[in-house]
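Please produce the structure of this protein holding fructose -6-phosphate.
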Amino acid sequence: MCGIVGYTGPRQGAGLVLDGLKRLEYRGYDSAGLAVVDSGRLEVVKAAGKIAALERALGAHPPAGHTALAHTRWATHGAPTDANAHPHTDCGGTLALVHNGIIENATVLRAALVQRGHQLRSETDSEVLVHLIEELHLGGAPLLDAVSGALAQVEGAYGIGVVSTREPDTLVAARRGSPLLVAIGDGEHFIASDASAVLAHTRSVVYLDDGEIAVVRPGDYRILDLAAVERVKAVSRIDWDLATIERGGYAHFMLKEILEQPETLRNVLRGRLVEDDGDVHLGGLNVTDADLLAVDRIVLTGCGSSWHAALIGEYMLEELARLPVEVEYASEFRYRNPIVDERTLVVGLSQSGETADTLAALREAKRRGARTLGIVNVVGSTIAREVDGGIYLHAGPEIGVASTKAFTGQIAALALLTLKMGRLRALSILQGREVVRGLAHLPALAQRALAQAPVVERIADQLVATTNALYLGRGYNFPVALEGALKLKEISYIHAEGYPAAEMKHGPIALIDDKMPVVFIAPRDAVYQKVVSNLEEVKTRGARVLAVVTEGDTGLARLADYQVEIPETLDLLTPILSVLPLQLLAYYVAVRRGCNVDQPRNLAKSVTVE
Ligand code: F6R
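Below is the modeled complex.
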Protein backbone atom coordinates (compact mmCIF):
# COMPACT_ATOMS: atom_id res chain seq x y z
CA MET A 1 0.00 0.00 0.00
CA CYS A 2 1.14 3.54 -0.67
CA GLY A 3 2.75 5.83 1.90
CA ILE A 4 2.78 9.62 2.36
CA VAL A 5 5.19 11.83 4.32
CA GLY A 6 5.34 15.65 4.26
CA TYR A 7 7.36 18.22 6.21
CA THR A 8 7.30 21.98 6.71
CA GLY A 9 9.60 23.74 9.16
CA PRO A 10 13.05 25.24 9.62
CA ARG A 11 15.04 22.09 8.70
CA GLN A 12 15.92 20.85 5.23
CA GLY A 13 12.92 18.76 4.16
CA ALA A 14 14.25 16.22 1.64
CA GLY A 15 16.28 14.09 4.06
CA LEU A 16 13.49 14.09 6.64
CA VAL A 17 10.78 12.88 4.28
CA LEU A 18 13.14 10.34 2.77
CA ASP A 19 13.80 8.89 6.25
CA GLY A 20 10.05 8.85 6.82
CA LEU A 21 9.54 6.86 3.60
CA LYS A 22 12.03 4.27 4.80
CA ARG A 23 9.86 3.74 7.87
CA LEU A 24 6.97 2.88 5.55
CA GLU A 25 8.90 0.36 3.45
CA TYR A 26 7.42 -2.60 5.35
CA ARG A 27 4.07 -1.89 3.74
CA GLY A 28 5.40 -2.86 0.36
CA TYR A 29 5.71 -0.51 -2.62
CA ASP A 30 7.11 -0.47 -6.09
CA SER A 31 8.27 3.15 -6.69
CA ALA A 32 8.98 6.30 -4.73
CA GLY A 33 9.39 10.03 -5.19
CA LEU A 34 9.65 13.40 -3.48
CA ALA A 35 9.03 17.08 -4.14
CA VAL A 36 10.74 20.05 -2.48
CA VAL A 37 9.53 23.66 -2.61
CA ASP A 38 12.20 26.33 -2.38
CA SER A 39 11.98 30.09 -3.05
CA GLY A 40 9.26 29.82 -5.65
CA ARG A 41 10.74 26.71 -7.29
CA LEU A 42 9.48 23.13 -7.25
CA GLU A 43 11.85 20.20 -7.67
CA VAL A 44 10.56 16.65 -8.11
CA VAL A 45 12.62 13.45 -8.18
CA LYS A 46 11.01 10.03 -8.75
CA ALA A 47 12.23 6.50 -9.34
CA ALA A 48 10.68 3.11 -10.00
CA GLY A 49 11.87 0.40 -7.62
CA LYS A 50 13.21 0.63 -4.11
CA ILE A 51 13.91 3.77 -2.09
CA ALA A 52 17.60 3.10 -2.72
CA ALA A 53 16.88 3.89 -6.40
CA LEU A 54 15.34 7.21 -5.37
CA GLU A 55 18.39 7.94 -3.21
CA ARG A 56 20.64 7.24 -6.18
CA ALA A 57 18.53 9.57 -8.34
CA LEU A 58 18.81 12.28 -5.68
CA GLY A 59 22.59 11.89 -5.61
CA ALA A 60 24.84 13.63 -3.11
CA HIS A 61 22.87 16.90 -3.24
CA PRO A 62 19.15 16.44 -2.73
CA PRO A 63 17.06 19.52 -3.53
CA ALA A 64 17.26 22.18 -0.81
CA GLY A 65 14.08 23.58 0.73
CA HIS A 66 12.04 23.64 3.92
CA THR A 67 8.77 22.15 2.61
CA ALA A 68 8.87 18.62 1.21
CA LEU A 69 6.42 15.91 0.24
CA ALA A 70 7.23 12.25 -0.44
CA HIS A 71 5.45 9.07 -1.45
CA THR A 72 5.89 5.34 -1.86
CA ARG A 73 3.55 3.89 -4.46
CA TRP A 74 2.05 0.41 -4.72
CA ALA A 75 0.70 0.47 -8.27
CA THR A 76 -3.03 0.24 -8.86
CA HIS A 77 -3.52 2.20 -12.10
CA GLY A 78 -0.58 1.98 -14.44
CA ALA A 79 2.62 0.00 -14.06
CA PRO A 80 5.33 0.97 -11.55
CA THR A 81 7.39 3.37 -13.68
CA ASP A 82 9.16 6.68 -13.01
CA ALA A 83 6.33 8.55 -14.76
CA ASN A 84 3.61 6.86 -12.72
CA ALA A 85 5.44 7.40 -9.42
CA HIS A 86 4.21 10.29 -7.23
CA PRO A 87 4.42 13.27 -6.69
CA HIS A 88 2.50 14.37 -9.77
CA THR A 89 2.77 17.95 -10.96
CA ASP A 90 0.42 20.29 -12.80
CA CYS A 91 1.11 21.54 -16.33
CA GLY A 92 3.23 24.53 -15.25
CA GLY A 93 5.16 22.99 -12.34
CA THR A 94 3.47 25.08 -9.63
CA LEU A 95 1.90 22.21 -7.72
CA ALA A 96 2.93 18.75 -6.57
CA LEU A 97 0.53 16.13 -5.24
CA VAL A 98 0.76 12.69 -3.65
CA HIS A 99 -2.28 10.43 -3.39
CA ASN A 100 -3.21 7.14 -1.72
CA GLY A 101 -6.48 5.51 -2.74
CA ILE A 102 -8.41 5.17 -5.98
CA ILE A 103 -10.19 7.94 -7.91
CA GLU A 104 -13.11 6.06 -9.44
CA ASN A 105 -14.21 8.71 -11.95
CA ALA A 106 -10.64 9.37 -13.14
CA THR A 107 -11.33 8.24 -16.72
CA VAL A 108 -14.11 10.78 -17.22
CA LEU A 109 -12.16 13.56 -15.48
CA ARG A 110 -9.02 12.81 -17.49
CA ALA A 111 -10.89 13.07 -20.82
CA ALA A 112 -12.38 16.42 -19.80
CA LEU A 113 -9.01 17.76 -18.62
CA VAL A 114 -7.32 16.76 -21.87
CA GLN A 115 -10.09 18.47 -23.80
CA ARG A 116 -9.45 21.62 -21.79
CA GLY A 117 -5.80 21.52 -22.86
CA HIS A 118 -4.08 19.86 -19.88
CA GLN A 119 -1.07 17.65 -20.45
CA LEU A 120 -1.19 14.51 -18.33
CA ARG A 121 2.08 12.65 -18.12
CA SER A 122 1.18 9.45 -16.28
CA GLU A 123 -1.32 6.61 -16.53
CA THR A 124 -2.43 7.07 -12.93
CA ASP A 125 -5.85 8.00 -11.63
CA SER A 126 -4.09 10.32 -9.15
CA GLU A 127 -2.74 12.79 -11.67
CA VAL A 128 -6.18 14.14 -12.56
CA LEU A 129 -6.39 15.66 -9.08
CA VAL A 130 -3.38 17.91 -9.46
CA HIS A 131 -4.74 19.30 -12.73
CA LEU A 132 -8.15 19.94 -11.17
CA ILE A 133 -6.42 21.84 -8.35
CA GLU A 134 -4.33 23.73 -10.93
CA GLU A 135 -7.44 25.09 -12.67
CA LEU A 136 -8.69 26.69 -9.45
CA HIS A 137 -5.33 27.70 -7.93
CA LEU A 138 -4.00 29.42 -11.05
CA GLY A 139 -7.39 31.07 -11.38
CA GLY A 140 -6.64 32.83 -8.06
CA ALA A 141 -7.95 30.49 -5.34
CA PRO A 142 -5.72 29.94 -2.31
CA LEU A 143 -4.31 26.39 -2.13
CA LEU A 144 -6.83 25.29 0.53
CA ASP A 145 -9.84 26.43 -1.55
CA ALA A 146 -8.39 24.99 -4.74
CA VAL A 147 -7.89 21.60 -3.10
CA SER A 148 -11.40 21.47 -1.62
CA GLY A 149 -12.88 22.64 -4.94
CA ALA A 150 -11.06 19.84 -6.77
CA LEU A 151 -12.03 17.19 -4.21
CA ALA A 152 -15.68 18.10 -4.70
CA GLN A 153 -15.32 16.81 -8.26
CA VAL A 154 -13.87 13.38 -7.48
CA GLU A 155 -15.47 10.09 -6.49
CA GLY A 156 -13.55 7.41 -4.67
CA ALA A 157 -11.04 7.15 -1.86
CA TYR A 158 -8.13 9.42 -1.11
CA GLY A 159 -5.49 10.55 1.32
CA ILE A 160 -3.59 13.41 -0.34
CA GLY A 161 -0.81 15.89 0.29
CA VAL A 162 -0.31 18.99 -1.88
CA VAL A 163 2.35 21.74 -2.06
CA SER A 164 2.48 24.90 -4.18
CA THR A 165 5.26 27.32 -5.08
CA ARG A 166 2.74 30.13 -4.50
CA GLU A 167 2.45 29.18 -0.79
CA PRO A 168 5.92 27.77 -0.20
CA ASP A 169 5.64 26.94 3.52
CA THR A 170 2.23 25.25 3.33
CA LEU A 171 1.17 21.61 3.13
CA VAL A 172 -2.48 20.87 2.43
CA ALA A 173 -3.70 17.36 3.28
CA ALA A 174 -7.13 15.76 2.95
CA ARG A 175 -8.66 12.41 3.70
CA ARG A 176 -11.55 10.26 2.53
CA GLY A 177 -11.02 6.57 3.04
CA SER A 178 -7.19 6.51 3.21
CA PRO A 179 -5.51 7.22 6.55
CA LEU A 180 -3.68 10.49 7.16
CA LEU A 181 -2.42 12.40 10.19
CA VAL A 182 -0.78 15.69 11.14
CA ALA A 183 2.24 15.28 13.43
CA ILE A 184 3.09 18.18 15.73
CA GLY A 185 6.73 19.12 16.28
CA ASP A 186 8.45 22.11 17.82
CA GLY A 187 8.13 24.90 15.25
CA GLU A 188 7.64 22.26 12.55
CA HIS A 189 4.91 19.91 11.34
CA PHE A 190 4.59 16.71 9.36
CA ILE A 191 1.81 14.96 7.54
CA ALA A 192 1.91 11.18 7.15
CA SER A 193 -0.24 8.21 6.21
CA ASP A 194 1.17 6.19 9.10
CA ALA A 195 2.61 7.31 12.42
CA SER A 196 5.72 5.20 11.95
CA ALA A 197 6.95 7.74 9.38
CA VAL A 198 7.20 10.55 11.95
CA LEU A 199 7.81 8.76 15.22
CA ALA A 200 11.49 9.61 15.20
CA HIS A 201 10.51 13.32 15.49
CA THR A 202 7.35 13.51 17.57
CA ARG A 203 4.75 11.39 19.35
CA SER A 204 1.95 13.98 19.14
CA VAL A 205 -0.41 13.45 16.24
CA VAL A 206 -3.86 14.49 15.08
CA TYR A 207 -5.66 11.83 13.04
CA LEU A 208 -7.76 13.23 10.21
CA ASP A 209 -11.27 11.84 9.80
CA ASP A 210 -12.99 11.29 6.47
CA GLY A 211 -14.10 14.57 4.92
CA GLU A 212 -11.43 16.65 6.68
CA ILE A 213 -8.78 18.87 5.17
CA ALA A 214 -5.69 20.20 6.97
CA VAL A 215 -3.64 23.33 6.29
CA VAL A 216 -0.24 22.85 7.84
CA ARG A 217 2.48 25.51 8.28
CA PRO A 218 5.65 25.49 10.41
CA GLY A 219 4.05 27.43 13.27
CA ASP A 220 0.42 26.27 13.13
CA TYR A 221 -2.08 23.90 11.60
CA ARG A 222 -5.83 24.10 11.01
CA ILE A 223 -8.28 21.30 10.31
CA LEU A 224 -11.52 22.05 8.47
CA ASP A 225 -14.34 20.13 6.90
CA LEU A 226 -14.97 20.38 3.17
CA ALA A 227 -17.42 23.25 3.77
CA ALA A 228 -14.46 25.16 5.33
CA VAL A 229 -15.85 25.01 8.88
CA GLU A 230 -12.98 24.73 11.35
CA ARG A 231 -12.85 21.60 13.54
CA VAL A 232 -11.37 21.24 17.01
CA LYS A 233 -9.43 17.99 17.12
CA ALA A 234 -7.86 16.07 19.97
CA VAL A 235 -4.10 15.49 19.91
CA SER A 236 -3.22 11.81 20.40
CA ARG A 237 -0.04 10.55 21.97
CA ILE A 238 1.66 7.55 20.39
CA ASP A 239 2.88 5.03 22.92
CA TRP A 240 4.12 2.26 20.64
CA ASP A 241 7.70 1.68 19.72
CA LEU A 242 8.74 1.72 16.10
CA ALA A 243 9.13 -2.03 15.77
CA THR A 244 5.51 -2.62 16.72
CA ILE A 245 3.83 -0.04 14.56
CA GLU A 246 5.65 -1.20 11.48
CA ARG A 247 3.16 -4.00 11.59
CA GLY A 248 0.40 -1.56 12.49
CA GLY A 249 0.48 -2.70 16.11
CA TYR A 250 -0.02 -6.39 15.26
CA ALA A 251 2.36 -9.12 16.39
CA HIS A 252 2.68 -10.44 12.84
CA PHE A 253 1.86 -9.35 9.30
CA MET A 254 -0.25 -12.49 8.93
CA LEU A 255 -2.55 -11.42 11.76
CA LYS A 256 -2.74 -7.88 10.39
CA GLU A 257 -3.62 -9.23 6.95
CA ILE A 258 -6.26 -11.60 8.32
CA LEU A 259 -7.90 -8.79 10.27
CA GLU A 260 -7.88 -6.29 7.40
CA GLN A 261 -10.02 -8.52 5.18
CA PRO A 262 -13.22 -6.48 5.63
CA GLU A 263 -11.30 -3.59 4.06
CA THR A 264 -9.66 -5.64 1.30
CA LEU A 265 -13.05 -7.13 0.39
CA ARG A 266 -14.40 -3.59 0.13
CA ASN A 267 -11.51 -2.77 -2.23
CA VAL A 268 -12.11 -5.67 -4.60
CA LEU A 269 -15.80 -4.79 -4.88
CA ARG A 270 -15.45 -0.99 -5.01
CA GLY A 271 -16.97 0.51 -8.14
CA ARG A 272 -17.71 -2.90 -9.65
CA LEU A 273 -21.22 -3.81 -8.42
CA VAL A 274 -24.22 -2.56 -10.41
CA GLU A 275 -27.14 -3.47 -8.18
CA ASP A 276 -29.97 -2.24 -10.44
CA ASP A 277 -28.83 -4.46 -13.30
CA GLY A 278 -27.82 -7.36 -11.06
CA ASP A 279 -24.52 -7.13 -12.89
CA VAL A 280 -20.93 -5.97 -12.55
CA HIS A 281 -18.67 -3.45 -14.19
CA LEU A 282 -15.24 -4.96 -14.85
CA GLY A 283 -13.22 -2.28 -16.61
CA GLY A 284 -10.05 -4.35 -16.98
CA LEU A 285 -11.38 -7.41 -18.81
CA ASN A 286 -10.52 -6.03 -22.26
CA VAL A 287 -12.83 -8.61 -23.83
CA THR A 288 -16.09 -7.66 -25.54
CA ASP A 289 -19.40 -9.15 -24.42
CA ALA A 290 -19.65 -10.82 -27.83
CA ASP A 291 -16.29 -12.54 -27.27
CA LEU A 292 -17.32 -13.60 -23.77
CA LEU A 293 -20.50 -15.06 -25.23
CA ALA A 294 -18.47 -17.06 -27.70
CA VAL A 295 -16.61 -18.78 -24.85
CA ASP A 296 -17.79 -22.40 -24.49
CA ARG A 297 -15.43 -23.60 -21.78
CA ILE A 298 -13.36 -22.11 -18.96
CA VAL A 299 -10.09 -23.35 -17.51
CA LEU A 300 -9.05 -21.92 -14.14
CA THR A 301 -5.42 -22.38 -13.24
CA GLY A 302 -3.06 -21.48 -10.41
CA CYS A 303 -0.98 -22.96 -7.57
CA GLY A 304 -1.49 -23.47 -3.85
CA SER A 305 -4.13 -21.24 -2.29
CA SER A 306 -4.84 -19.70 -5.69
CA TRP A 307 -5.70 -23.18 -6.96
CA HIS A 308 -8.06 -23.65 -4.01
CA ALA A 309 -9.80 -20.38 -4.88
CA ALA A 310 -10.11 -21.65 -8.45
CA LEU A 311 -11.98 -24.74 -7.21
CA ILE A 312 -14.56 -22.45 -5.59
CA GLY A 313 -14.75 -20.52 -8.87
CA GLU A 314 -15.51 -23.75 -10.71
CA TYR A 315 -18.54 -24.40 -8.51
CA MET A 316 -19.75 -20.80 -8.90
CA LEU A 317 -19.33 -20.60 -12.67
CA GLU A 318 -20.93 -23.96 -13.35
CA GLU A 319 -23.88 -23.24 -11.05
CA LEU A 320 -24.66 -19.69 -12.13
CA ALA A 321 -23.11 -19.20 -15.56
CA ARG A 322 -23.82 -22.77 -16.72
CA LEU A 323 -20.45 -23.08 -18.41
CA PRO A 324 -18.22 -26.16 -18.20
CA VAL A 325 -15.18 -25.33 -16.05
CA GLU A 326 -11.99 -27.23 -15.35
CA VAL A 327 -9.50 -26.40 -12.64
CA GLU A 328 -5.91 -27.26 -13.43
CA TYR A 329 -2.76 -27.13 -11.34
CA ALA A 330 -0.68 -24.75 -13.44
CA SER A 331 2.32 -27.04 -13.09
CA GLU A 332 0.36 -29.97 -14.58
CA PHE A 333 -1.44 -28.03 -17.29
CA ARG A 334 1.71 -26.85 -18.98
CA TYR A 335 3.22 -30.30 -19.36
CA ARG A 336 0.10 -32.04 -20.62
CA ASN A 337 -1.41 -31.69 -24.03
CA PRO A 338 -4.40 -29.64 -22.85
CA ILE A 339 -7.47 -29.24 -25.04
CA VAL A 340 -7.65 -25.50 -25.50
CA ASP A 341 -8.82 -23.47 -28.46
CA GLU A 342 -10.02 -19.96 -29.29
CA ARG A 343 -13.38 -20.62 -27.59
CA THR A 344 -11.64 -21.51 -24.30
CA LEU A 345 -11.21 -18.82 -21.67
CA VAL A 346 -8.16 -19.56 -19.52
CA VAL A 347 -8.08 -17.66 -16.24
CA GLY A 348 -4.85 -17.59 -14.21
CA LEU A 349 -5.12 -16.84 -10.49
CA SER A 350 -2.06 -15.45 -8.75
CA GLN A 351 -1.56 -13.11 -5.80
CA SER A 352 1.96 -12.20 -6.84
CA GLY A 353 1.42 -12.33 -10.58
CA GLU A 354 4.91 -13.83 -10.79
CA THR A 355 4.41 -17.54 -10.07
CA ALA A 356 6.45 -19.31 -12.74
CA ASP A 357 4.11 -22.26 -13.30
CA THR A 358 1.01 -20.09 -13.59
CA LEU A 359 2.77 -17.75 -15.97
CA ALA A 360 3.94 -20.66 -18.12
CA ALA A 361 0.45 -22.22 -18.17
CA LEU A 362 -1.04 -18.93 -19.38
CA ARG A 363 1.62 -18.58 -22.06
CA GLU A 364 0.91 -22.12 -23.22
CA ALA A 365 -2.84 -21.40 -23.32
CA LYS A 366 -2.22 -18.25 -25.34
CA ARG A 367 0.02 -20.13 -27.76
CA ARG A 368 -2.86 -22.53 -28.37
CA GLY A 369 -5.20 -19.67 -29.22
CA ALA A 370 -7.11 -19.28 -25.95
CA ARG A 371 -8.16 -15.95 -24.53
CA THR A 372 -6.42 -15.37 -21.19
CA LEU A 373 -7.46 -13.44 -18.11
CA GLY A 374 -5.62 -12.85 -14.84
CA ILE A 375 -7.04 -12.57 -11.34
CA VAL A 376 -4.00 -10.92 -9.81
CA ASN A 377 -3.14 -8.77 -6.80
CA VAL A 378 0.17 -7.18 -7.79
CA VAL A 379 -0.43 -4.50 -10.42
CA GLY A 380 2.04 -4.48 -13.27
CA SER A 381 3.30 -8.00 -12.43
CA THR A 382 4.32 -10.25 -15.29
CA ILE A 383 1.05 -12.18 -15.41
CA ALA A 384 -0.95 -8.94 -15.26
CA ARG A 385 1.04 -7.61 -18.20
CA GLU A 386 0.86 -10.72 -20.35
CA VAL A 387 -2.81 -11.69 -20.12
CA ASP A 388 -5.47 -10.19 -22.40
CA GLY A 389 -7.23 -8.61 -19.42
CA GLY A 390 -8.31 -9.35 -15.88
CA ILE A 391 -9.52 -8.38 -12.45
CA TYR A 392 -7.16 -6.83 -9.92
CA LEU A 393 -7.75 -7.72 -6.26
CA HIS A 394 -6.65 -4.32 -4.84
CA ALA A 395 -5.88 -6.13 -1.56
CA GLY A 396 -2.66 -4.20 -0.94
CA PRO A 397 0.67 -5.93 -0.44
CA GLU A 398 0.45 -9.32 1.22
CA ILE A 399 3.64 -9.59 3.26
CA GLY A 400 2.93 -12.68 5.37
CA VAL A 401 3.99 -15.71 3.33
CA ALA A 402 0.72 -17.55 3.90
CA SER A 403 -1.95 -16.19 1.59
CA THR A 404 -4.97 -14.85 3.52
CA LYS A 405 -6.49 -11.63 2.23
CA ALA A 406 -5.51 -12.49 -1.35
CA PHE A 407 -7.43 -15.78 -1.06
CA THR A 408 -10.70 -14.13 -0.04
CA GLY A 409 -10.12 -11.41 -2.64
CA GLN A 410 -9.73 -14.10 -5.31
CA ILE A 411 -13.04 -15.72 -4.34
CA ALA A 412 -14.79 -12.33 -4.47
CA ALA A 413 -13.21 -11.63 -7.89
CA LEU A 414 -14.41 -15.05 -9.12
CA ALA A 415 -17.92 -14.17 -7.95
CA LEU A 416 -17.67 -10.97 -10.02
CA LEU A 417 -16.55 -12.96 -13.06
CA THR A 418 -19.41 -15.41 -12.46
CA LEU A 419 -21.91 -12.57 -12.43
CA LYS A 420 -20.45 -11.21 -15.67
CA MET A 421 -20.54 -14.57 -17.45
CA GLY A 422 -23.89 -15.51 -15.93
CA ARG A 423 -25.71 -12.28 -16.83
CA LEU A 424 -24.55 -12.69 -20.43
CA ARG A 425 -26.23 -16.10 -20.37
CA ALA A 426 -29.03 -17.57 -18.27
CA LEU A 427 -28.68 -15.74 -14.96
CA SER A 428 -31.78 -13.60 -14.40
CA ILE A 429 -31.62 -10.00 -13.24
CA LEU A 430 -33.26 -11.05 -9.95
CA GLN A 431 -30.67 -13.75 -9.30
CA GLY A 432 -27.96 -11.29 -10.29
CA ARG A 433 -29.26 -8.69 -7.83
CA GLU A 434 -29.31 -11.26 -5.05
CA VAL A 435 -25.63 -12.05 -5.61
CA VAL A 436 -24.72 -8.36 -5.91
CA ARG A 437 -26.45 -7.66 -2.58
CA GLY A 438 -24.75 -10.67 -1.01
CA LEU A 439 -21.38 -9.37 -2.14
CA ALA A 440 -22.09 -5.85 -0.90
CA HIS A 441 -22.82 -7.18 2.60
CA LEU A 442 -19.68 -9.30 2.79
CA PRO A 443 -17.24 -6.76 4.29
CA ALA A 444 -19.52 -6.20 7.30
CA LEU A 445 -20.12 -9.95 7.68
CA ALA A 446 -16.38 -10.63 7.50
CA GLN A 447 -15.93 -8.12 10.33
CA ARG A 448 -18.46 -10.08 12.39
CA ALA A 449 -16.78 -13.40 11.64
CA LEU A 450 -13.41 -11.98 12.69
CA ALA A 451 -14.89 -10.81 15.99
CA GLN A 452 -14.85 -14.55 16.89
CA ALA A 453 -11.04 -14.39 17.16
CA PRO A 454 -11.02 -14.84 20.98
CA VAL A 455 -13.14 -18.02 20.59
CA VAL A 456 -10.71 -19.37 17.99
CA GLU A 457 -7.78 -18.49 20.23
CA ARG A 458 -9.19 -20.63 23.05
CA ILE A 459 -9.70 -23.54 20.63
CA ALA A 460 -6.10 -23.15 19.44
CA ASP A 461 -4.94 -23.80 23.04
CA GLN A 462 -6.52 -27.25 22.76
CA LEU A 463 -4.94 -28.12 19.41
CA VAL A 464 -1.42 -26.89 19.90
CA ALA A 465 0.09 -30.30 20.74
CA THR A 466 -1.58 -32.27 17.95
CA THR A 467 0.53 -33.86 15.21
CA ASN A 468 -2.23 -34.43 12.64
CA ALA A 469 -5.54 -32.85 11.68
CA LEU A 470 -8.26 -33.57 9.16
CA TYR A 471 -10.37 -30.84 7.53
CA LEU A 472 -13.69 -31.83 5.95
CA GLY A 473 -16.27 -29.88 3.95
CA ARG A 474 -18.66 -30.36 1.04
CA GLY A 475 -19.85 -28.30 -1.90
CA TYR A 476 -18.52 -24.76 -1.81
CA ASN A 477 -16.72 -25.57 1.43
CA PHE A 478 -14.75 -28.56 0.19
CA PRO A 479 -12.00 -26.25 -1.17
CA VAL A 480 -12.12 -24.38 2.16
CA ALA A 481 -11.20 -27.68 3.84
CA LEU A 482 -8.16 -27.89 1.55
CA GLU A 483 -7.24 -24.29 2.30
CA GLY A 484 -7.69 -24.65 6.07
CA ALA A 485 -5.41 -27.70 6.06
CA LEU A 486 -2.80 -25.91 3.93
CA LYS A 487 -2.77 -22.92 6.29
CA LEU A 488 -2.20 -25.13 9.32
CA LYS A 489 0.54 -27.24 7.76
CA GLU A 490 2.50 -24.42 6.16
CA ILE A 491 2.86 -22.21 9.21
CA SER A 492 2.64 -24.62 12.17
CA TYR A 493 4.24 -27.70 10.52
CA ILE A 494 1.38 -29.90 11.76
CA HIS A 495 0.42 -32.52 9.21
CA ALA A 496 -3.08 -31.69 7.97
CA GLU A 497 -5.24 -32.97 5.11
CA GLY A 498 -8.39 -31.61 3.54
CA TYR A 499 -11.03 -33.89 2.03
CA PRO A 500 -14.57 -33.73 0.69
CA ALA A 501 -16.43 -34.85 3.83
CA ALA A 502 -18.05 -37.91 2.21
CA GLU A 503 -14.75 -39.12 0.71
CA MET A 504 -13.50 -39.68 4.22
CA LYS A 505 -15.33 -43.03 4.26
CA HIS A 506 -13.20 -44.22 1.36
CA GLY A 507 -9.93 -44.37 3.26
CA PRO A 508 -9.04 -41.53 5.64
CA ILE A 509 -11.60 -42.72 8.19
CA ALA A 510 -9.00 -45.35 9.13
CA LEU A 511 -6.94 -42.53 10.67
CA ILE A 512 -9.64 -41.39 13.03
CA ASP A 513 -9.28 -42.01 16.73
CA ASP A 514 -9.54 -39.91 19.86
CA LYS A 515 -6.23 -38.21 19.08
CA MET A 516 -7.31 -36.93 15.67
CA PRO A 517 -8.85 -33.45 15.61
CA VAL A 518 -11.33 -33.10 12.76
CA VAL A 519 -12.36 -29.65 11.54
CA PHE A 520 -15.78 -29.62 9.91
CA ILE A 521 -16.88 -26.68 7.79
CA ALA A 522 -20.62 -26.98 8.26
CA PRO A 523 -22.53 -23.77 7.53
CA ARG A 524 -26.27 -24.02 6.89
CA ASP A 525 -26.14 -24.44 3.13
CA ALA A 526 -27.55 -26.85 0.54
CA VAL A 527 -25.40 -29.75 1.79
CA TYR A 528 -25.72 -29.07 5.52
CA GLN A 529 -27.64 -32.27 6.36
CA LYS A 530 -25.14 -34.37 4.43
CA VAL A 531 -22.27 -32.81 6.37
CA VAL A 532 -24.06 -33.49 9.66
CA SER A 533 -24.27 -37.20 8.73
CA ASN A 534 -20.52 -37.23 8.03
CA LEU A 535 -19.92 -35.52 11.34
CA GLU A 536 -21.90 -38.26 13.14
CA GLU A 537 -19.71 -40.89 11.46
CA VAL A 538 -16.55 -39.19 12.67
CA LYS A 539 -17.82 -38.58 16.19
CA THR A 540 -18.80 -42.25 16.56
CA ARG A 541 -15.12 -43.06 16.09
CA GLY A 542 -14.06 -40.82 18.95
CA ALA A 543 -12.57 -37.86 17.06
CA ARG A 544 -12.32 -34.41 18.62
CA VAL A 545 -14.49 -32.19 16.42
CA LEU A 546 -14.28 -28.48 15.72
CA ALA A 547 -17.26 -27.24 13.69
CA VAL A 548 -17.55 -23.96 11.79
CA VAL A 549 -21.29 -23.28 11.89
CA THR A 550 -23.79 -20.60 10.91
CA GLU A 551 -24.63 -18.09 13.66
CA GLY A 552 -27.48 -19.39 15.83
CA ASP A 553 -27.18 -23.01 14.65
CA THR A 554 -27.55 -25.17 17.74
CA GLY A 555 -28.00 -28.43 15.83
CA LEU A 556 -24.34 -29.41 16.04
CA ALA A 557 -23.67 -28.51 19.65
CA ARG A 558 -24.20 -32.10 20.87
CA LEU A 559 -21.67 -33.44 18.33
CA ALA A 560 -18.95 -30.81 18.24
CA ASP A 561 -16.37 -30.41 21.00
CA TYR A 562 -15.72 -26.83 19.89
CA GLN A 563 -17.78 -24.50 17.71
CA VAL A 564 -17.10 -21.21 15.99
CA GLU A 565 -19.82 -19.20 14.30
CA ILE A 566 -19.91 -17.31 11.01
CA PRO A 567 -22.75 -15.08 9.75
CA GLU A 568 -25.22 -16.38 7.19
CA THR A 569 -24.72 -15.49 3.52
CA LEU A 570 -25.43 -16.98 0.08
CA ASP A 571 -24.05 -20.50 -0.34
CA LEU A 572 -21.56 -19.44 -2.99
CA LEU A 573 -20.14 -16.72 -0.73
CA THR A 574 -19.78 -18.83 2.46
CA PRO A 575 -16.13 -19.74 1.69
CA ILE A 576 -15.15 -16.09 2.16
CA LEU A 577 -16.48 -16.23 5.71
CA SER A 578 -15.79 -19.87 6.64
CA VAL A 579 -12.08 -19.60 5.83
CA LEU A 580 -11.61 -16.71 8.29
CA PRO A 581 -11.72 -18.81 11.51
CA LEU A 582 -9.47 -21.39 9.83
CA GLN A 583 -6.87 -18.71 9.02
CA LEU A 584 -7.05 -17.52 12.63
CA LEU A 585 -6.80 -21.08 13.95
CA ALA A 586 -3.65 -21.78 11.92
CA TYR A 587 -2.18 -18.48 13.09
CA TYR A 588 -2.87 -18.96 16.81
CA VAL A 589 -1.69 -22.59 16.80
CA ALA A 590 1.54 -21.64 15.00
CA VAL A 591 2.24 -18.76 17.40
CA ARG A 592 1.73 -21.07 20.38
CA ARG A 593 4.19 -23.54 18.85
CA GLY A 594 6.78 -20.77 18.49
CA CYS A 595 6.82 -20.89 14.68
CA ASN A 596 7.97 -17.99 12.51
CA VAL A 597 4.51 -17.17 11.24
CA ASP A 598 5.41 -14.56 8.63
CA GLN A 599 8.36 -16.49 7.22
CA PRO A 600 7.66 -20.23 7.55
CA ARG A 601 10.58 -22.50 6.82
CA ASN A 602 11.29 -23.30 3.16
CA LEU A 603 8.57 -21.00 1.78
CA ALA A 604 8.86 -17.92 -0.40
CA LYS A 605 6.18 -15.32 -0.97
CA SER A 606 6.53 -15.53 -4.69
CA VAL A 607 7.58 -18.78 -6.35
CA THR A 608 9.35 -17.69 -9.49
CA VAL A 609 10.97 -21.02 -10.29
CA GLU A 610 9.09 -24.01 -11.65
C1 F6R B 1 -0.27 -20.59 0.56
C2 F6R B 1 0.36 -19.77 -0.44
C3 F6R B 1 0.81 -20.41 -1.70
C4 F6R B 1 0.45 -19.53 -2.89
C5 F6R B 1 1.04 -20.11 -4.19
C6 F6R B 1 0.65 -19.30 -5.40
O1 F6R B 1 -0.61 -19.84 1.69
O2 F6R B 1 0.55 -18.59 -0.26
O3 F6R B 1 0.27 -21.67 -1.83
O4 F6R B 1 -0.95 -19.44 -2.98
O5 F6R B 1 2.44 -20.13 -4.08
O6 F6R B 1 1.09 -17.99 -5.30
P1 F6R B 1 0.48 -16.85 -6.20
O7 F6R B 1 -0.94 -16.69 -5.80
O8 F6R B 1 1.31 -15.63 -5.90
O9 F6R B 1 0.61 -17.30 -7.62
